[in-house]
């Protein structure tokens, strides 16, 4: 799936991503990179709203797992169980979240196939203007079966 097609997929399935004007920059080979412009994500101080930043971190982890499970031929529903952010700097420009499959991916996949449910932590790094601005950690649960 092209970045444009995957962007449309996310906009259809997670409408908030459309309101944020999120777009997929890269997806595949165990990585996902999503971006969002500043304008629709502003707070009252003229910087990025913390809720938008955490949403991009969650969306990045979710998209990474969704795409990786599809590539592995596994149908599952994915939900976020826990989300934590460390806000490092104010964000005054477009921001980008990068996520990579963790080392535990093979065990996660094996557990999901055997037990029908598995949990994994995905770390995302958000950058803006060449600097890391947020560190996000999300615990995601996958439940085997078709996504509804």
List keywords for this structure.
single chain; 148 residues; alpha+beta; six-stranded antiparallel β-sheet; 4 helices; 6 strands; globular
**Estimated radius of gyration:** 15 Å
- Total of helices: 4
N- to C-terminal distance: 20 Å
Class by SSE composition? alpha+beta
State the shape: globular
Biggest sheet: strands side by side, in what order? Answer: 1-2-4-5-6-3
Percent of residues in β-strands: 35-45%
Number of strands: 6
Mean pLDDT: 96
Topology (elements, then pairings):
Layout: H1 3-13, H2 15-19, E1 23-28, E2 31-36, H3 50-71, E3 76-87, E4 95-100, H4 105-115, E5 117-128, E6 131-144
Antiparallel strand pairs: 1-2, 2-4, 3-6, 4-5, 5-6
Structure description:
It is a single chain. The chain is α+β, with helices and mostly antiparallel strands and 148 residues long. The chain contains 4 helices and 6 strands, in the order H-H-E-E-H-E-E-H-E-E. The chain has helices at 3-13, 15-19, 50-71, 105-115, and strands spanning 23-28, 31-36, 76-87, 95-100, 117-128, 131-144. It has a 6-stranded antiparallel beta sheet with strand order 1-2-4-5-6-3. The longest helix has 22 residues, at 50-71. It is globular, with a radius of gyration of 15 Å.
Question: In brief, what are we looking at here?
Answer:
With 148 residues, this protein is an alpha+beta fold.
């Amino acid at each position: 799936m092209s970045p444009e097609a995957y962007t449309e997929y996310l906009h259809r399935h997670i409408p908030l991503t459309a309101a944020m004007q999120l777009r997929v920059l890269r997806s595949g080979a165990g990585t996902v990179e999503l971006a969002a412009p500043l304008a629709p994500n502003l707070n009252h101080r003229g910087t990025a709203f913390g809720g938008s930043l955490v949403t991009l971190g969650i969306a990045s982890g979710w998209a990474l797992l969704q795409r990786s499970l599809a590539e592995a031929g596994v149908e599952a529903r994915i939900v976020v169980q826990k989300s934590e952010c460390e806000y490092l700097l104010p964000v005054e420009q477009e921001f980008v979240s990068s996520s990579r499959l963790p080392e535990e991916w093979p065990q996660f996949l094996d557990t999901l196939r055997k037990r029908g449910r598995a949990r994994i932590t995905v770390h995302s790094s958000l950058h803006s203007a060449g600097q890391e601005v947020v560190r996000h950690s999300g615990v995601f649960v996958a439940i085997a079966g078709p996504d509804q």
